[in-house]
Amino acid sequence: MKISIFAGDLCDAKADALCTSTNPRLSLAMGTGGSVRDRGGYQILRECEAIVEAELLRSGLRGLPSGSVHVTGAGDLPSRVIVHCVASDESHRSSEVIIRNCVTGALARADEAECESIAMPVFAAGHAGFRFESALTAMAGALHESFSAAMSFHATNSPAAVTSEGLWSCHWIGPNVLRQKTHGLPRYQCSS
Question: What is the C-alpha to C-alpha distance for residues 182 and 156, in angstroms, rounded to an integer?
Fold first, then answer.
């Protein structure tokens, strides 16, 4: 897997699956969700509302569980699917466990949708105010655990484009990880 970290608009990522970092209501009000809604169209928001309504009917809860992931169409975006990752609770609090669940759930749902690439923001670093470096470390750990020792993943800083939360753009290539600091961000490189 190749992992690139860059800053810009999530919707500019060339990936089959785009992930949002959202709240339990999937409101798509700001950050990655707002970008997806603005550029992908309100059909995506309507699909999110239907998911939340179904949860209300099923469980009586007015929100989705923290760490859960939910898939909608991509609307007008060129991606195949949008994976909405509930990266905080109703009070906009998050944790490393929630972030890790978002990563592993997003990878599983993208795989189910037969996606070959996925773009993820740094979960909870925006709307939930989770410390950026801690969120990035939790994500890196979840990614590392998601792949067997027979695979390797490679990440570099890329001059491409995610919202203020940052972005992981993952492309399958294949595990030994060398962690370095590059301009304040962890940088992962393949060690064969």
Answer: 9
How many Å separate Cα 115 from the centre of its chain?
14
Report how far residue 115's alpha carbon sits from residue 80's, in angstroms, rounded to the nearest whole number. 7
The separation between the first and the last C-alpha atoms of the chain, rounded to the nearest angstrom, is: 13
Q: Which residues contact 74 (CB under 8 A, 6 or more apart)?
A: 18, 40, 44, 80, 81, 82
Neighbours of 164 (CB within 10 A): 15
Type of residue numbered 182: T
Separation in Å, CA 185 to CA 133, 135, 140, 175: 7, 11, 12, 19
**What is the per-residue pLDDT across 30-88, written as a single tens digit (0 to 9) for each?**
889 999 999 999 999 999 999 999 999 999 998 999 999 999 999 999 999 999 999 99
Task: State pLDDT tens for residues 165-179.
Answer: 444 444 333 222 222
